[in-house]
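quick one, 296 residues, struct below
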Amino acid sequence: MRNILFRSDSSSLVGTGHIMRDLVLAKQYKNSSIIFATQNLAGNINHKIEESGYNVNILKTNDIKEVINLIKELNIDLIVIDNYSIDFKYEKKLKEKTGVKILSFDDTYEKHHCDIILNHNIYGDLKKYKDLVPKNCKVRCGLAYTLLREEFYSTKKRKKEKKKKTIFLAMGGSDSSNINISVLKVLKKYNNIKVNVVTTTANKYLKKLQKYSRNKPWINLHINSTEIAKLMNKSDLAIVTPSVTLNEIYYMKIKFIAIKTAANQKYMYNFVKKEKQAILKQFNKNKLEKLLTKVL
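---
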């Protein structure tokens, strides 16, 4: 039995995507002992890890010494790193001090010192890793390695033939850019629509969103939903960020409008733009209205 350590964080600032995709990957390591090492940051979703049946080891900081001690103490065979604040130097020192096998997530073509590099996004380009990883590193990237939760495979795609349009709105689990309400204010101008807004308790603007949604029957607020695939499948249109969520949207073959909200979404943004799909470089009320008018 292998001992595998996942090093990842979640918070209102970091978001929830790292932990959620780690949980998908963790399920692929059957007959292994899985442990998560994560910080207790504000707005974290560490409870999701525990709900999935894995042990959580709370780190005091992101100091490498703490992780090195943990690897030695728990006899870790493989560490999965999914954290933007852990870089090449960190990974190299980790390898030198422990000899542990390293699998690193990468979304933005950064330099890594690892045994396996995983870019599971649909825009993943194998050629770009030529000078970014050691020669013996296994490169896993692109559509063939996209991580999707089981709910997406088990949800049957359906034909949408309704007069009333259903819109799936998800600006990230933490909506760090705080634009859910701004998008809803644009959508309220359209008749005969229903909006399913997906968010989590990591959203520090959640109370404002709940207050805005109150007494608006056309808005359904879903907090910490475990039925994302079903909600997407019911939709005629999705308004999302060009993030991991778009991997899921592409799989479900749903019309979408993407709004870039963070720098690390650059490569997905470029991919979608090249595909000539509806995407905004940043939230813009007038541009969003034009795109919605075309679709609705």
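The first strand starts at residue 2 and ends at 8.
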